[in-house]
Design goal:
4 helices; five-stranded antiparallel β-sheet; 5 strands; alpha+beta; 132 residues
């Protein structure tokens, strides 16, 4: 599956501070990767409709069983409200059964810095991993 490029559900106000999240998931099996992939369109659609969502992208590496997500939010509260809503809530609980490893990192940027590059997201995720 090719990368799903950055899309902007709603533009932040110029000069606003935006809350960014990058995540990395590795599934234990190829079947787990397929299950993750099948849930992705619904979650991406949910983000595109979520209040306070300013951007989303997905990098899927199914043969390597690895997925990266990148999203930008009005604030931490908007991200948390999304994460607790359906279908994300149920999907993330179900994914725990076939996820081998996951990592998350959060930071803020000015609205003008969107979209965030994959290189920046991967750099921050690598730093997060080294912190453990």
């Amino acid at each position: 599956m090719p990368d799903i490029p950055w899309s902007t559900p709603s533009r932040p106000a110029p000069g606003a501070e935006v809350y960014v999240m990058a995540s990395r998931f590795e599934t234990a099996t190829l079947l787990g990767a397929v299950k993750f992939l099948l849930k992705a369109p619904g979650i991406l659609g949910q983000i595109r409709k979520a209040p306070g969502a300013h951007g989303v992208a997905l990098r899927a590496r199914v043969p390597r069983r690895t997925f990266l997500t990148l999203s930008a939010w009005e604030d931490q509260g908007a991200l948390h409200r999304f994460a607790r809503s359906e279908p994300h809530r149920s999907s993330s609980r179900a994914a725990a059964a076939f996820t081998k490893e996951s990592a998350f990192t959060f930071w803020t940027v000015r609205a003008e810095e969107l979209p965030i590059s994959w290189e920046e997201a991967e750099r921050r995720l690598a730093q997060q991993k080294q912190a453990y």
